Amino acid sequence: MKVPSQPSGNTAEAGGPEDRLRRFVTIWGRAIFPVTATSLTRAEFEGHLLPLARVLCDALLARPFDTGPAQRVGAGLVDAHCTDPDALGRSLGVVDSYLVLYCGTDAELPAEELRARCARLQHAMATGYAQALRERTRAEQEAIARSALSARSAAEIALHATESRFRAVFDGAAIGIGIADLEGRLVEINDTMTRMFGGVEAHVRSRNVSEWVHPEDGPHVWRLYEELVRGEREQYRVEKPYYRGDGTVLWTNLTVSLLRDAEGRPQYQLALMEDITERRLLHLRLRYEATHDALTGLPNRTLFFERLEKALAPGSAGADTRFGLCYLDLDGFKAINDSLGHSVGDRLLVEVADRLQACATGPGEMVARLGGDEFVALTTGTGGEPDATALADRILAALATPVGVDGRDLAVRGSLGVVEGPAGERTAAEVLRSADITMYRAKSAGGNRFALADPEADARAITRHGLTTALPTALERGEFFIEYQPLVHLDDGSVHGAEALVRWSHPQHGVLGPDRFIPLAEDTGLIVPLGRWVLQEAVRQARSWQLENPATGTPLRVNVNLSPTQLHHPRLVADTVDVLERAGLEPGALCLEVTESALIGADEDLLKPLRQLADMGVDIALDDFGTGYSNLANLRRLPVSVLKLDRSFTRGMQQHPVDPVDLKIVEGIVSLAHSLELAVTVEGVETAAQAERLRDLGCDTAQGWYYARPGAPDRIHSLVLADAV
Amino acid sequence: MERPAWAPPGIDISVPSVSRMYDFYLGGSHNFEVDREAARKAMEFLPGLPKIMQANRAFMRRAVRFAVDNDVTQFLDIGSGIPTFGNVHEVALAADPAARIVYVDHDPVAVAHSRAVLEGVEGAAVVPADLRKPADILRSPEVTGLLDLDRPVALLLVAVLHFLEDADRPREAVAELLDALAPGSLLVVTHASYEGIPVDQERAGGTVEVYRSTRNPLVMRSRDEIARFFDGTGLVEPGLVSMPHWRPDGPAEEEDPYAFSGFAGVGRKA
Fold first, then answer.
1. B245 inside 8 A of chain A by CB
2. Among all residues of chain A, which has the CA nearest to that of B33?
3. CA atoms within 13 A on the CB side of A541
4. What would the DSSP string read from start to end of A237-306?
């Protein structure tokens, strides 16, 4: 243990003055250490006391006697942080009892003198201690007060800056700001808020926040308010209307926040409000315009779809809700528009809209204009089909009276498609499509009536739609294939060739015949690539038959159908030549079949490519002959070499007895054809008797189930082999 | 301009401050009647409170010297309070004149007083900041300017962690501070506890109640809970012990019984 402040040069031999001084210090230290606040160790503390003890000792013996040093000892105690007055009391006790004992033994002074001096030293110590403690206390009080002041002014400067910034925001804000206490009494509002409420501050201030109700308040608005003032919610944001002083309505985007005090207790509510009255009006107007038809004022397609979707939502208003939809298209409206002008047409539409509106006034009923002369009426509820057909009947009845426009009575007729069913099963688009299809059914049945949706009819129409969209990828995916139906010489029954018939192996619907998809391909233009593919395949197949049967005399020929669109295609000749050359097939082995109707009214431009092909040696067959106008005079100038009699003629041959008129007609056609150097092919031969009769009539070739059904190319191959035997 | 009624108050010296109460326990006069009144009330339950504070000061002195002896001469003293005699900078600068000391306190009066005391003292500064927001402390110009965080720092959390409630996430605050310090840094902690107090818990609880009525509730923690503040450091000998038992200069038996209240320890960051 080290002891600081040990005076150098003094030896502390036992019993000597220095040793006695140290023993005095030890007693002193032990007496006052427990009442000091020092953080020094006891030894360190005694180190502080030692010089003080030495001063006392010296003063006790000094000549002349002076109490001044003892005052400094008292002050020294304070310096050593002996600020507890008990430390003084205990110190004086130690001095009184031990100073003379430990420091006065070798003195030349008499004992009474020493006692008297000791007493006076104690008085001086007490004085010095008291003075020092008073000074120190004053100094420290002053210091802490100064610190508190400086801290406070720093805080105030910061607060003032904050307040100035806040004030600037508060006064200059474009949004209304209001502060109220938790009872709803307004504490502050800014000018913007006053202006929003009509400009009279007193009007705003006079009312409690909780009185600012409006009939259009959302049900949650006041619940949120209560939660906030109870301190259960820090903030909420709502759209809220208020009455202004003049009774007009102010719409606001309102954000309310809870302000808490330093202890976290809810204290005030702060409202920030943005005036959205104008924006809301504009929004409502835009919304109206966006959802209503400008001409008739009826709800438009958008609004109708919203309502329909709501009506179709599963369980929207109970388990057994149903809907009924009437889709109306006016019959012959285009003719009125075209002949009497759009303004008459428009006035007619307005009148129709009014009458329709009057038909659907019940709850859950609505009428909308989808566009043009298409209207819909919707009914919802649980009435079922009777309700829906009753609505359709009302609509037809309403249209029965002619509409007067410009003194002219216009008869109005319409076709209605009615769809009825339970909610939750179909989408709005599906329902509308069904209604559309059904409406067309009503229209094609003569119009001025309604038709009820029929799932099977829908399915057919929907399939047609599905096939059309699937066609392009079907070609890419190789879903088409070709079957061949043999053409047979009637005179000897030998195989003459085969007609290529395209099939679609549809992934869902199975194998589809050309009647199912060729019209669709015609409509979409896909017929051109599809036709080219068929031509390529058939020509390649004909060539491979030739290669497989080099021995059989006349090479097998192949018939390929040409659609009207292909006929008009500018690359018809070039493509055909290209296909033949690539396959290495001579033109004479190809016969292109063109329907009679495709050539009706054909001019020279249209016939030119056919003529070119005929000149090259390609046979051109006139398909389905006898179903069109059968313009016999025209036959001469067509570049055809074959007539294919329609199967309706061969059907006549099946009857018993055979219709003599049919016989005469066929005989005449064959004779005419032969005189024009045209070969005659008959289709649809199903019996031996038919075949015999047709041969007797002079027909050249035939095809039909009697000989063979359409089949895979190797079937033809085997038929040919059979011939050869 | 009229001050808005809802604006927060500035410095409120009508509320007792733990720094000034601490000064009062140590016989100082850097305090106001409101502080003295609270301190006297607390002492009704624990008359030996001044002895606890004294032992706390003594431990801090020893810990600072221990740091200097181990070549850690940078000090970050958070919750430094009112600097009275024998403060960290005095002890540290006496041991090594090149020592660096940054005091941190969230009591504006304590900070203002520290500024006055430190005027003209090179190598020492004070930051007004809160232990609950370590990032504010670490980013302060005083810390970045005075301390070299690439070298070890003695982080002093002496008699301050027990003023943070668990909701203040004191453990995370300590971890965040330690994370910013170099390996070899020291964590110096004293913490109040019911363990070691020479009166029953009910009586000691009276003091806790007094502090609860100030803005700084006192949170007593168990030895195990206090030990967890040292996660990420290794406790130096003799570990987490009562204050007089931590590397004493003299025989601990001579200490006042109150001095053994609570725990003290020093951890070294690996």
1. no
2. A141
3. 25
4. EEEEEEE-TTS-EEEEEEEEEEEE-TTS-EEEEEEEEEE-HHHHHHHHHHHHHHHB-TTT--B-HHHHHH
Q: Cβ(B11)–Cβ(B108) under 8 Å?
A: yes
Which tops the pLDDT comparison, A619 or A9? A619
Q: How far apart are CA B117 and CA B96, in angstroms?
A: 19
A690 three-state secondary structure: helix
Query: How many pairs of residues across A and B have Cβ atoms under 8 Å apart?
Result: 111
Lowest model confidence (mean pLDDT) among A3-7, A193-197, A559-563: A3-7
Helix (H, G, I), strand (E, B) or coil at A589: helix
The token pair that represents A670 in the structure block: 């064959």
- Nearest-Cα residue of chain A relative to residue B56: A39
Q: What is the pLDDT of residues B94-151, one digit of tens each?
A: 899 999 999 999 888 899 999 988 988 889 999 999 999 999 999 999 999 999 999 9
Q: Which residues of A543-552 are buried (b: 16+ CB within 10 A; e: fewer)?
A: bebbeebeeb
Judge whether A313 is closer than 8 Å to chain B, CB to CB. no
Cis peptide before A710 (omega within 30 of 0): no
For residue A136, give the nearest of B4, B13, B29 by CB distance.
B29
Which candidate from B13, B29, B85 shows the least CB-CB separation from A137? B29
* Predicted pLDDT at A517: 86
Residue B4: its pLDDT value, please?
A: 38
Task: Give the Cβ contact number of residue A43 at 10 Å.
Answer: 14
Question: What one-character DSSP code corresponds to residue A543?
Answer: H
For residues A287 and A281, what is the distance between their CA atoms, to the nearest angstrom?
10
- The interface predicted TM-score of the complex, written ipTM, equals 0.83
* Closest-CA residue of chain A to B107: A151
pLDDT of B236-263, one tens digit each?
999 999 999 999 987 777 788 898 999 9
Under an 8 A CB cutoff, do A136 and B249 touch? no
Q: Is the peptide bond before A422 cis (omega within 30 degrees of 0)?
A: no
Residue A30 CB contacts under 8 Å (≥ 6 apart), including other chains: none
Which 3 state secondary structure label does DSSP give B101?
A: strand
Q: Which residues of A touch B4 (CB under 8 A)?
A: 163, 166, 179, 187-188
Q: Which helix (H) or strand (E) holds A330?
A: strand A322-331
Using an 8 Å CB-CB cutoff, list chain A residues near B108. 151-152, 154-155
Q: Which domains does chain A possess?
A: 17-142 (1.10.490), 173-281 (3.30.450.20), 292-453 (3.30.70.270), 479-724 (3.20.20.450)
Q: Is A651 exposed, middle or buried (0-12, 13-18, 19+ CB in 10 A)?
A: middle
Query: Is some CB atom of chain B closer than 8 A to the CB atom of A600?
Result: no
> In chain A, which residues have their Cβ closer than 8 Å to the Cβ of B61?
39
- Give the lowest-confidence range in A246-260, A289-303, A457-471: A457-471
Contact (CB<8Å) B26/A84: no
**Whether the predicted pLDDT of B67 surpasses 70:** yes
Q: Which domains does chain B have, with CATH numbers?
A: 52-199+220-269 (3.40.50.150)
Predicted pLDDT of residue B134: 94
Share of chain A above pLDDT 90, in %: 34
Which residues on neighbouring strands pair with residue A502, listed in sequence order? A482
